[in-house]
Structures are given as C-alpha cells and as structure tokens.
C-alpha cells in the first residue's frame, strides 16, 4: 500500500474473485458463469446501441424498469437497476447498516458480505451454519441487525423456502432483510411475491447467471418503494449513469426472451443432476444444490489436492481455504460435454490415488 492509503483500511481483506487465467485453455468451472451465450435478442440489441455510445445512458433505466416490472409483477417504483447485484448489496450496506445497527449473515456464504461490512466500517455478526451446512432460521429471529442471506447460499447451493424467509422478515420488522437471489432460477423459489407483504424485505437478483450476462454487469433490486427510494438516493449520489447503454439494451433483449433463459436454466438443472449422480457413484459427498454449481468432497483426495490436480489437467474449479469447507470444491455446472471432461479427469485422479 502507498503511504497515502487511509489507515481506516489497514485491516481490510479484499474479496478474491475466481481465477481468470490465460496461461492455457481450461474447462472453466470455477466462477459460476453460464456455459451458454446470451440471447440473440440481447446480442443484437447491444450491437445496435453501440452506435450511440457518444450519448449518456438513461439514468432512470426507464424502458428496462418497465419491462422488468412487467416480468416480475411489481410496480416500476419497486425496482432499481445496479451495476451487477454487487452494487446493490453495497448500497444496502451503506443505506441500512451503521455503527448502531450492524449486519448479520452466515459464517459460510458469499465472500463479499464481510468485505462490504469492513469497507463501510459496520460491525457484523457471522452466524454459524448447522453441521449439514443449512441455515437455522431460529438463529435469525429478532437479531436486531440488517440481515443478508444468499438464497440459494454460496458456496453450498442450499436454499431456504420463502416461508422461512418470511418468518425471518416478520421477526425483524424494524430491520431490513436482504435476500440475495443470484442463483434462484436454477430450482429455488423466489421471495419476490413477498415484497408487498413485508416492507422490510429487499430482493437482489442478477443477469449474470441464468441470463448469461456476467460480463455485462447488470443486477437489480425489488422491494417496497420507500426502500427503492433509499437506494436511488445513494445511486444518484455516487454514479447516476451506473448502467451503460449496451448493457441496458442487452438486458431489455434478454427480458424479451424469457423462454431462452428458462430453457438454459432447465439444461443446467439436468446437467447438475447428472454430475451429482456421477460424482456420488465415485464416492463423493455432494450437498443438495439448487444453484448452477455443486459443492463436493471426496474422502480419498483432499479439497486442495483435488483442485490442484484438476487444474494441472486443464479443469478449473473453486477451492476455499476456510477450515470448515477446505475439503470441498465448488464446481460450476457447464455443458454435458464439460461435465464429462470433469468426470474423466476425476477418474484419472482417483485411479492415481488408489495406486
């Protein structure tokens, strides 16, 4: 760090993104990207908009907001678009947490939550998962803090039901409950229908996963119109043009092709079931995921060793060093062909371990 860097960040541990190596060609199963291209409608809309990049984008995202409100069955004043759902989460930490009202989230979850808490200098509580890696709803009743729940959770893929989220929202009526639904389209149930019932519920979603737009950086939040006003106050105080013209157009194209999104999500679910069954045949323990990834371990090969040996063979998965999960690897679900490559390389490693 330079001698000018503020001392308030001395203890900050930044988020570590998944590897994006360029030393060789990999089967890339480490960052939960879609193996499918965006909708052709999204691609064509973005290309047309590229001809107008000399003009600022619409800070209100009017056309995109109207279309999303129609798709989600909510009002336009109940929607905000952000530069990826990460920006929405950051705004939520800024808006609803301070020294008096800290944050609470699971001890094993999306790695950005503790980073945002540190950046915003908010005290936070990490609530342990059960031994089976599920969230214990009872632990979140009446905690008196702003709650952040990835649902399905990452990196486990395990999801709560909307009724369980509703219990948490009802028991924390004076605090905001943020439900991060980045992976919801792969088999979990969304809490979007609950936002009218609970004025303290904010749902975050993204175009990065099921809509194949990770590189476009487009996320959104849905909640009570007063919550959305809060978040817009921060947006217009930091970067009113947070969504560029091409991304906005691509998002509108994607929303006009929901059948394509559903088809790809169904294929991912089928490939997840295939990969899970095949890994279990090989002795892996695989958590019951409703996301576009699985979390797995093998008794004969340690988590870090398996990650390293797969990488040597051209397959990238995600390994975490946190002691509670260090024996596991998170494996993004790709095409059937990509999953077969993974299985073939796993067979080689397991055969090597048996010698």
Number of domains: 2
Query: CATH first level of the largest domain: which class?
Result: Alpha Beta
- Tell me the name of the CATH homologous superfamily of the largest domain: Type I PLP-dependent aspartate aminotransferase-like (Major domain)
Low-confidence stretches: none
Pattern of helices and strands: EHHEHEHEEHEEEHHHEEHEEEH
The separation of the N and C termini measures 47 Å
The CATH architecture category of the largest domain equals: 3-Layer(aba) Sandwich
Summarize the main sheet.
7 strands, mixed
Radius of gyration: 21 Å
Number of helices: 10
Multimeric state of these chains? single chain
Mean pLDDT: 96
Shape: globular
Label the structural class: alpha/beta
CATH overall fold name of the largest domain: Aspartate Aminotransferase, domain 2
- Biggest sheet strand order reads 2-8-7-6-5-3-4
Strand-residue proportion: 5-15%
The overall strand count is: 13
Percent range of helical residues: 25-40%
Essential attributes:
Aspartate Aminotransferase, domain 1; Aspartate Aminotransferase, domain 2; single chain; alpha/beta; globular; 13 strands; 4-stranded antiparallel β-sheet; 10 helices; 7-stranded mixed β-sheet; 355 residues
């Amino acid at each position: 760090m330079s001698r000018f860097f503020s001392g308030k960040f001395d203890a900050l541990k930044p988020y570590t993104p998944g590897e994006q190596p360029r030393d060789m060609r990999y089967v890339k199963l480490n960052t939960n990207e879609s193996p499918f291209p965006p909708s052709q409608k999204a691609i064509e809309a973005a290309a047309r908009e590229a001809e107008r990049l000399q003009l600022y984008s619409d800070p209100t995202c009017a056309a995109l907001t109207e279309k999303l409100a129609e798709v989600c069955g909510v009002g336009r004043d109940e929607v905000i678009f952000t530069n990826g759902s990460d920006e929405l989460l950051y705004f939520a930490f800024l808006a609803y947490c301070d020294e008096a009202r800290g944050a609470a989230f699971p001890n094993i979850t999306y790695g950005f939550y503790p980073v945002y808490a540190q950046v915003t200098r908010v005290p936070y509580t990490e609530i342990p998962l059960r031994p089976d890696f599920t969230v214990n709803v009872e632990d979140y009743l009446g905690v008196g803090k702003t709650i952040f729940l990835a649902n399905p959770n990452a990196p486990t893929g395990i999801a709560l039901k909307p009724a369980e989220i509703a219990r948490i929202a009802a028991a924390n009526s004076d605090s905001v409950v943020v439900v991060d639904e980045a992976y919801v389209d792969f088999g979990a149930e969304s809490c979007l229908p609950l936002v009218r019932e609970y004025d303290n519920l904010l749902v975050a979603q993204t175009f990065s996963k099921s809509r194949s737009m990770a590189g476009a950086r487009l996320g959104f939040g849905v909640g009570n119109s007063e919550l959305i006003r809060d978040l817009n106050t921060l947006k217009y105080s930091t970067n009113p043009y947070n969504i560029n013209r091409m991304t906005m157009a691509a998002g509108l194209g994607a929303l006009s092709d929901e059948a394509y999104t559903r088809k790809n999500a169904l294929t991912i679910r089928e490939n997840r079931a295939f990969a899970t069954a095949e890994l279990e045949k090989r002795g892996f323990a695989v958590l019951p995921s409703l996301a576009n990834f699985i979390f797995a371990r093998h008794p004969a090969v340690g988590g870090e060793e398996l990650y390293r040996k797969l990488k040597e063979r051209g397959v990238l998965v995600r390994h975490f060093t946190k002691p509670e999960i260090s024996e596991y690897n998170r494996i993004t679900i790709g095409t059937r062909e990509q999953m077969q490559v993974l299985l073939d390389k796993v067979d080689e490693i397991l055969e090597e371990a048996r010698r």
